Amino acid sequence: MLESLDEIDKTIFLFLNGLHQDWLDPIMQFITGTVSWIPFYILILAFLFWKFKKYALVILIAIALTITAADQLTSSLMKPTFQRLRPCYDEQIRLQVYNYVGCGGQFGFASSHAANTFALAMMLWIVCRGMSERRKIAYLMFSWAGLVAYSRIYVGVHYLGDVLVGGIIGIILASVISFLFKQMNIKPFAV
Questions:
Q1: pTM for this predicted structure
Q2: How many structural domains are present in the chain?
Q3: pLDDT tens-digit profile of 164-185?
Q4: How many CB atoms lie within 10 A of CB 156?
Q5: Structural domain of residue 75, as residue ranges?
Q6: Which one-letter DSSP state was computed for residue 94?
Q7: Residue 189 maps to a domain
Q8: Is 171:149 a contact under the CB 8 Å cutoff?
Q9: What is the pLDDT of residues 132-142, one digit of tens each?
Q10: What sign does the dihedral 130-63-56-49 (CA atoms) show?
Q11: In this structure, is residue 190 part of a structural domain?
């Protein structure tokens, strides 16, 4: 069964990765980059201090814990344990992969980019409950996380399964950590 799922994942990957366009390549290279998003992170930081004032620091600690957990789970535990080759290293499809940003580490399951971005999106969705802007924030953050996750397929370094599992891990970890903060009666989690 795992072999057939792997073949389906490869087929979907080759289709999605094959949709590249020359004009879109620099945009996707920007989207997939971590440093590219520093201004966006600064805006999130400003938003948190504007909306949550003295509780912003607690939210930032929760976000930092969540992203660290997501990153370590995917990079330090899952990738070395499962050792699933990235598409750009997979001898079966390597020559069909459109990859122009470099391949990165040898293993790709699960995607740390997807885990980290979905962790941040979920944590913001959780702490913004009760705000009138919550729907807009959720739409913005989950669209952003989805775009970053898709960019990993576009540039040829992750399969769809890698980013889906990474996204799920990020969402679960944000939910668990926010629940723990709520159990400790820490505002704004205990609202």
A1: 0.95
A2: 1
A3: 999 999 999 999 999 999 999 9
A4: 24
A5: 2-183
A6: G
A7: no
A8: no
A9: 888 899 999 99
A10: negative
A11: no
